[in-house]
Design a protein that fits this description.
5-stranded mixed β-sheet; alpha/beta; 4-stranded mixed β-sheet; 24 strands; 444 residues; binds uridine-diphosphate-2(N-acetylglucosaminyl) butyric acid
Amino acid sequence: MNKGRAVVMEKELTMEKLLIEGGHRLKGTIQVSGAKNSAVALIPAAILADSTVSIEQLPDISDVRLLSALLEEIGGDVSFDGSTLTVDPSRMISMPLPNGRVKKLRASYYLMGAMLGRFKKAVIGLPGGCNLGPRPIDQHIKGFEALGARITNEQGAIYLRADELRGAKIYLDVVSVGATINIMLAAVKAKGQTIIENAAKEPEIIDVATLLTSMGAKIKGAGTDIIRIDGVETLHGCRHSIIPDRIEAGTFMILAAAMGEQVLIDNVIPQHVESLTAKLREMGVQVDILDDQIMISQGPKELKRSDVKTLVYPGFPTDLQQPFTTLLTGARGTSIVTDTIYGARFKHIDELRRMGAEVKVEGSAAIVTGPTRLQAAKVRATDLRAGAALVIAGTMADGITEIIGIEHIERGYSKIVEKLQGLGVKIWREALEESEQEELRVAD
Ligand code: EPU
């Protein structure tokens, strides 16, 4: 396999847009990739080992390439063939990362826990605000401090330093996926026992704990709200295969519910998408569960309305709220979508309205009245899941929808065009016109 810098190429800012000719019924099988939100934690976790870690079935998305490049920046020997990432972390150094690539990626906060755990110090630049509203990391910081780190924030970079990390009892005031994982990363090599109370229970946390355990860590209770970690002195290399992406699977389920005749979603853990399955059935969609596949059959019948409230796992995921809102535009009656996790995650609503949707936002809720037949329009993806919502809207709409800002979509959905074409979606890329490039530059 090739090694070295050339392999970990990052894509330039996408100078393309997506075009979708809507209205076609979809049929076939679609493959789900490895979970993005696991990947962005598993890759930094490799820093903690003293020999080679291989992570298999990774999604080929820009977040993965960016993180791989960051591991190279700190001295890792990294290769990525589009699915398996191999990291030899033995020559890594505690290089400060206050600026540059690290600021392009929100999940670069996992470098804090991993570098602190290995080197007892780290300097990590953080991205500014984002389109989901404020994304605080106070619970991550509280956890690191409890383990003995001193932390300062200087000009947008977090400086962490500890003479020694010691296990501690940490109660999270907010149930946070990021804080739970980050504290695990920092605690696996700390002296003594760490207990995380009110921990998040998302499947991605179990996946990270599984990798760390294969590296020699001692972790109990991942997936419950109390996680116990007994620190160990060293961690070794291993091979790990990532879990399927439940949000990508959910996105395809919603697409199939909107436009599918018979769509088989392959490589999914059905239990991970139970809250969505229940909602789709409530709306009248036929969902059949197989071992690691889900079949969605949907004739040309009308969908029923449904209210949904996002909650921490196993509740309805905030990441599926935006695509689900698109589906509700085709359902009869008034539906209310409330996001209790990210109350400002409604940037897709304006774009859906351009396409003729009857939706209004009140506080942290979107009120959708349907059914409406969406009309093609020129729209802009402002964040990853808003992008997914617009792709689904494009397949439902009459005419050809143009989506700009697709680098947001490529952050989280690997080979999206090819995968959707496999179901019969008329979707293709075209170069951005000069005026569209300008619009994106201004928006950024
Ligand atoms: N929160 C705090 N303080 C903290 C951390 C979080 O107040 O220190 C709050 C957040 O503001 C939010 C809630 O707690 O209201 C939950 O945030 P959490 O920490 O769980 O989110 P995250 O770890 O930053 C991950 C995913 C998000 C996904 C949320 C769902 C990754 C890299 N990101 O974010 O995914 O929406 O969990 O809880 O795992 C996406 O995939 O598009 C995406 C944004």
